[in-house]
Design a protein that fits this description.
single chain; alpha/beta; D-Maltodextrin-Binding Protein, domain 2; 11-stranded mixed β-sheet; 16 helices; globular
């Protein structure tokens, strides 16, 4: 009887131990999470459906989300506090580079991120990996410039005699200096290091003909849609959104400036190991191929185009599609993050104000 009692007690204890172990395992799995930060709006909604939810499911983790238009000041303050709460941020690639140099961003071990390691070297750096691509393109009114008389290069944009009309450029040197140099005859693959003096000299030529220096993507699209300008440097997704609404506008990828947002990890991120696993999953070719099904951005992983997920007619519309990418200049964020790039940004302020 005593033995039976001891056996029963032993079984009860063993069962309790199993229950405790199971609870601990569940808690451990539930604790595997990251906080992902992006820019909100339709873009973040598209990433959630295309990339974040499938990645969370495949990895068995929880992805908490935050959004902010400009994450850079918060990255600096969080890391300075010594207790960052964000893990992975989706930001312009230049911020990842600057953050890495300033000790704000973790250096990546690409042996743990094989999907990124297989991407072109130009699409990654020690602190980040490209996540999606968009382009700064020459967009124009089809009412003003009908078929057969459309501008197709930055030289055309600068040619106010052959292509009269009101123009707008971005109030920022990034991509604008590249456009000026291509207008002056520099080949897209020979832009860097940028000849800053030459670029500003060319910009002085067109400056009297710039009706508006725009400050947001929404503004650039609105200017074109409302007929306030006839041609504009704009982001491809903003223009394609107008065309879907029936606007008589178009753009060319010829001499576009191919730009990226990238994923990077905050220095001292609370969930570093999980964040690294997520980075690898986020640039998985199939997840990447899902993104352009929901928004007009191109996948950063070229292998996405080999999955068959994106149909040929859709591929033709995307900025990072091979045939479109080869017509464009690939932005050098390393140059813009350098002292020369920072100096060009400071020089821009005085250029616009003069």
């Amino acid at each position: 009887m005593a033995v039976a009692s001891n056996t029963g007690l032993g079984r009860a204890l063993f069962g309790a131990a199993l229950g405790l172990f199971a609870s601990t395992s569940i808690a451990a799995n539930a604790a595997e999470q990251i906080t992902f930060v992006s820019q909100g709006g339709a873009y973040q909604k598209a990433q959630t459906v295309a990339i974040l939810d499938p990645s969370a499911k495949k990895l068995g983790i929880t992805i908490n989300q935050d959004s902010i238009p400009d994450a850079w000041p918060v990255i600096k303050s969080q890391v300075a506090s010594g207790k960052p709460i964000w893990d992975v941020v989706d930001v312009p690639t230049g911020y990842c580079l600057r953050g890495g140099e300033q000790g704000l961003i973790e250096k990546l071990d690409f042996s743990k991120i094989p999907n990124a390691a297989a991407m072109p070297e130009a699409y990654r750096n020690p602190y980040s990996v490209a996540y999606e691509f968009y382009s700064s393109v020459l967009a124009y009114s089809q009412k003003k410039y009908p078929d057969g008389a459309t501008p197709n290069s930055w030289a055309d944009f600068w040619d106010v005699k052959k292509f009269p009309g009101r123009r707008a450029l971005r109030n920022h040197p990034i991509a604008t200096l590249e456009a000026a140099l291509m207008a002056d005859g520099v080949a897209p693959d020979k832009l860097y290091p940028l000849d800053v003096d030459r670029a500003f000299k060319k910009l002085e030529e067109i400056k009297p003909n710039i009706t508006v220096w725009w400050t947001s993507g929404a503004q650039s699209a609105q200017l074109l849609n409302d007929g306030e300008v006839d041609m504009v440097m704009a982001w491809n997704g903003r223009v394609s959104a107008l065309t879907k609404e029936g606007a008589k506008v178009a753009y060319t990828y010829n001499q576009g400036i191919l730009q990226s947002t990238s994923l990077c990890i905050l220095k001292g991120a609370p969930n570093l190991a999980t964040a690294v696993k997520f980075l690898n999953e986020a640039v998985d070719p199939v997840h990447q191929a899902n993104l352009p099904l929901h928004i007009d951005y191109g996948p950063a992983n070229p292998k996405a185009f080999d999955t068959g997920v994106v149909k040929p007619e859709r591929v033709a519309q995307l900025p990072s599609a091979p045939d479109n990418a080869k017509k464009q200049a690939l932005m050098s964020y390393a140059w813009w993050a350098s002292p020369d790039g920072e100096a060009a940004e400071k020089r821009w302020v005085s250029f616009v104000q003069k």
